[in-house]
Every structure is written in structure tokens, then in C-alpha cells.
Design goal:
It is built from 14 helices and 16 strands. It has 405 residues and is of the alpha/beta class. The protein has one domain: TIM Barrel (Alpha-Beta Barrel). The strands form 4 sheets. Strands 5-4-11-12-13-14-15-16 form an 8-stranded mixed sheet. The protein has a 3-stranded antiparallel sheet with strand order 1-3-2, with no helix packed on it. Strands 8-9-10 form a 3-stranded antiparallel sheet, with no helix packed on it. α4 packs parallel to α7 and α5 crosses α7. It is globular, with a radius of gyration of 21 Å.
Length: 405
């Protein structure tokens, strides 16, 4: 099988010739740019500057020889860039105050400070002891002295008009996706954030605000989601008739519903205020691009939502964070088996991967993958991104153990 055939086979619950694997197909299955050069060296590959396709999380876009060495089956299309071929004109050097020689889209977005920190776009900051950019209060300050913030929905609807996909963008993205398809036999993962619908339990005021509005102002939330859905459907009908022959997996949103122990809001809220809108979007994507698989990223302890995610019409669920909550990876697989594919979950990323030995990583990866790959419908990668502190020996051991499981 080609990599594309392998990924699509397992996502359709058919038998692949081997386990499909991913690194960096989307912005929650990647690797820190601080860890990436060490991985390249440990694999015995020529050194190079990492290309940062997400400078907030400081993620490196994996190169093709790294994907080859780890046996990975996906390439990414993200923000007009890809790792399927060289795009030299898209990348420019920046060294992050001497901490990380790298390539970025726009070096002028960063300003080094006298205390060693770096400010990005005058908003987020990476202090000298950190490996990611962050904002004060996570960018979600809350004022409890007045009414909870709510959008003017008429103005919101008007503002969305400025974000209708233009003809020029359609042409550019079509050309890019077509070239990617023609240059590789790997699965093409479309991970364009600007195309994701504006539906999220932690959106529109942040995680402290929006779940409360779902309880206190459900009519407002329903109208907001209806407006966001109509906007998403309009863009889908403009764009996907042009690009669907060239993409295999479509990222249709990151909507983190889980904490470490439970869901942020109840399944009843999901069913009433999220499921109908997600389903409308997914039905249209399936109508226009029936051969592609629709992917949802949702972190945390969301075991109780798996049935509802299936009802939404998603084909793939990530990151399979079985380490959060009280349900094992076996329970996650049994709940999803034959109904929705799982992408991720390969090892406990908060305990075993950072704190365990290489042998611990190997043993857990083999056990987890052996179960998750049953009856197919499974693509291997870590639970979320591989962080800066992770030794390359563990990364290599994890991918090799998965292949042997």
C-alpha cells in the first residue's frame, strides 16, 4: 500500500498493510521546534533549521526524511505551507534571541526584550525559561464585576462577511493542494485554521465565560452558532468543490471539551447547542468531499461525549486522551470501535513519556497500540504534541514500538 492508501484504509475500518503513523499532520500531533533538532541528530540525518508552522506552540514542520525514518504516512497543508516539497520563499531565518536558530514566515512579528523574553505580534510572550508563547490569563481575562461579555450578533454576522473565502485564496489553495497531491503518495491532511467553523466551548470570551453562557443564555448561543454555521457552510461551498480531489483528511475544528477529570460542560449542553451545528457542517463536507475523512480535535476527559461526536458525523477523533478521566484506553477503543476512528493516544504524554524510562515508553506504547489498532480505525501518534523536554531517544523508541505492536 502507499501511505495514502494505508491511512484511508484504516479510517474506513479496512485492513491496512501496517499501522499508519503521523507526526505533524495537524497542529496537535507535532513536535516542539526545541526538540526537533535533537531528533534529527539522533536519527543520523543532516542538520537543518526547523521550519516553524505554528509559532505560538513553537512547532516544527517535520521534514520528509524524518517522516521516512519514523515511518509516518501524512503530509500537512497548513496556512499556505506544506512539508510535501520545498517552499524556500515562504521561510526566513530568526534565532529567537539566540535560543533557537529557525525559519519562520515573518521575522518582524517578533521583538526581543532586554529580560530575554520575546514578544510576538505585540500580544503574546515567550519568557526565557519557556518553550511556547502565552498571553496574560491565557488571553482570556475575566471581569466578574459586571455582565458576562456577549457579542452583538448583528455586528458579528456583518463582521464575518470579511472572512468569506476569496477567489484568489481558492485558486492559491487549489494550486497548493494539487501540487501536494501530485508530489507525494502520503495522505494529505488539510489543517487550515481559518477554514474551521467558529464553534467552540471555550470560544467567545474564553473557557471561564462561554460554558456559563451556554447555561444562562442558550438562545443567544444557539443564534451565535447558527450564524457561525451558515458562514462555515458558505465557505465550504466555495472552497471544497475546488480542492476536495486533492485532500484526504480535513481538520474541521479544535474544540477542547475535557479537563483532566471531566467535561467542561455537560453532554446535554453538547447535544443541544453544539451537535446540530457540527452535524450540518459535516454533512455538507461529506456531500461535497465524500472520499475525505472529517477530523475533530478535542482534548481531555471526553469519554462521555464519544457517542455524540459520532452523531455529529465526524470520522476521526483526536487526541484520544485516555490518560484524563477514569476510562482506560481499552474503554475508549471499545466505545469507538467500528464507529469512529481514533488518531493519537499512543502513550501517556503527561506521565510515561516525560517521566518514564525509554523501556517504560516502549512497553506502554506496545500495549496501548496493540489494543487501539484492533479492528482497524487507528492512526498512531502521541497524545498531543511532543514537548521540548522529551529526549529524542524516547521519540524514536515510541515510533518503533508502535510499528512492532
Amino acid at each position: 500500500m502507499t501511505s495514502r492508501e494505508r491511512v484511508l484504509a484504516t479510517l474506513h475500518f479496512q485492513t491496512p498493510d501496517r499501522l499508519p503513523k503521523d507526526l505533524g499532520g495537524m497542529l496537535s500531533t507535532g513536535i516542539s521546534a526545541f526538540a526537533y533538532p535533537k531528533l534529527v541528530e539522533a536519527l543520523g540525518l543532516p542538520s537543518r533549521l526547523p521550519r516553524l508552522y505554528d509559532t505560538g506552540q513553537m512547532l516544527a514542520m517535520p521534514d520528509l526524511d524524518v517522516l521516512d525514518a519514523l515511518g509516518c504516512d501524512c503530509v500537512v497543508v497548513c496556512s499556505g505551507t506544506t512539508n510535501a516539497f520545498d517552499q524556500d520563499g515562504h521561510w526566513h531565518p530568526y534565532d529567537f534571541a539566540g535560543r533557537l536558530p529557525a525559519l519562520v514566515h515573518n521575522p518582524s512579528a517578533f521583538q526581543a526584550q532586554t529580560d530575554g523574553s520575546i514578544v510576538q505580534n505585540n500580544v503574546s510572550r515567550m519568557v526565557s525559561s519557556s518553550f511556547v508563547f502565552d498571553e496574560e490569563h491565557g488571553g482570556q481575562p475575566v471581569d466578574w464585576t459586571g455582565e458576562l461579555p456577549m457579542l452583538d450578533l448583528k455586528q458579528y454576522k456583518k463582521d464575518l462577511e470579511a472572512h468569506i473565502v476569496s477567489d484568489d485564496r481558492v485558486k492559491a489553495l487549489r494550486a497548493l493542494c494539487k501540487r501536494v497531491r501530485e508530489s507525494t503518495d502520503r495522505a494529505v491532511f488539510l489543517s487550515e485554521g481559518a477554514l474551521s467553523p467558529n464553534i467552540s466551548i471555550h470560544g467567545y470570551g474564553g473557557m471561564a465565560v462561554f460554558p456559563i453562557l451556554c447555561l444562562t443564555e442558550p438562545d443567544y448561543v444557539a443564534e451565535l452558532h447558527d450564524i457561525a454555521t451558515e458562514h462555515a457552510l458558505r465557505n465550504i461551498r466555495i472552497l471544497f468543490p475546488e480542492i476536495h480531489p486533492f485532500v484526504d483528511v480535513i481538520w474541521a475544528g479544535s474544540d477542547d471539551w475535557g479537563t483532566q477529570n471531566n467535561t467542561i460542560a455537560s453532554p446535554a449542553v453538547f447535544r443541544k447547542l453544539f451537535l446540530p451545528y457540527r452535524r450540518r457542517i459535516n454533512e455538507e463536507l461529506h456531500r461535497i468531499a465524500p472520499e475525505a475523512r472529517i477530523f475533530l480535535h478535542s482534548c481531555g476527559a471526553i469519554y462521555s461525549l464519544i457517542d455524540l461526536v459520532v452523531e455529529c458525523g465526524f470520522d476521526v477523533l483526536n487526541p484520544v486522551q485516555w490518560s484524563a478521566g477514569k476510562h482506560s484506553y481499552k474503554e475508549w477503543k471499545d466505545k469507538a470501535r467500528g464507529r469512529i476512528a481514533l488518531w493519537g493516544g499512543g502513550v501517556n504524554a503527561q506521565v510515561t513519556l516525560p517521566l518514564g524510562t525509554v523501556e517504560n515508553v516502549v512497553c506502554e506504547t506496545r500495549a496501548v497500540v496493540s489494543y487501539l489498532k484492533q479492528d482497524h480505525g487507528y492512526v498512531f501518534c502521541n497524545i498531543h504534541n511532543i514537548l521540548a523536554e522529551i529526549a529524542p531517544e524516547k521519540v524514536i523508541a515510541m515510533y518503533r514500538a508502535a510499528a512492532q505492536a
